[in-house]
Write a structure and sequence with these properties.
single chain, about 140 residues, alpha+beta, four-stranded mixed sheet, three-stranded antiparallel sheet, 1 helix
């Protein structure tokens, strides 16, 4: 048992002697690793985007055809536009109104993210054509 306590004491002394140097190196490596990780992350995601193709707000005359333009998603330098899910209102070109089309993507970079396009059919005024009914001249 005497050897065991002697060896523990020498190990303890060795750790105490090198402790400040080891701590300094560990801190240095931590800072270098964090800086390198931030730089790599920035480089990999600098061109990422989630944007609507075309205009965010579209106005159509009644009867005019709405053409879906979709959205573009670049994540970690890859085009993942095929992952966009389109939901929301169905645009009825024959009925005046305001329709919202929702574009969603779920991805490691973007998380669960949505963009909305507003399509207005007609002038968007529900009282359109009723100026002569009870209105001031």
């Amino acid at each position: 048992m005497a050897n065991s306590s002697r060896s523990r004491g020498s190990v303890s002394k060795a750790v105490k002697k090198s402790h400040k140097g080891v701590l300094l190196l560990a801190l240095l490596f931590l800072l270098i690793g964090a800086a390198a990780g931030a730089a790599v992350s920035w480089f990999m995601t600098k061109d990422d985007r989630f944007v609507l193709n075309g205009e965010k707000e579209i106005t159509l005359a009644v009867g005019e055809v709405y053409e879906e333009q979709g959205a573009e998603v670049i994540s970690f330098g890859r085009d993942i536009s095929e992952n966009v899910v389109i939901s929301g209102d169905t645009v009825d070109e024959s009925t005046e109104g305001v329709y919202q089309i929702v574009y969603s993507v779920e991805d490691l970079r973007w998380g669960e993210y949505q963009l909305v396009r507003v399509v207005t059919v007609g002038d968007g005024d529900p009282d359109n054509g009723t100026e002569g009914e009870g209105g001031a001249a």
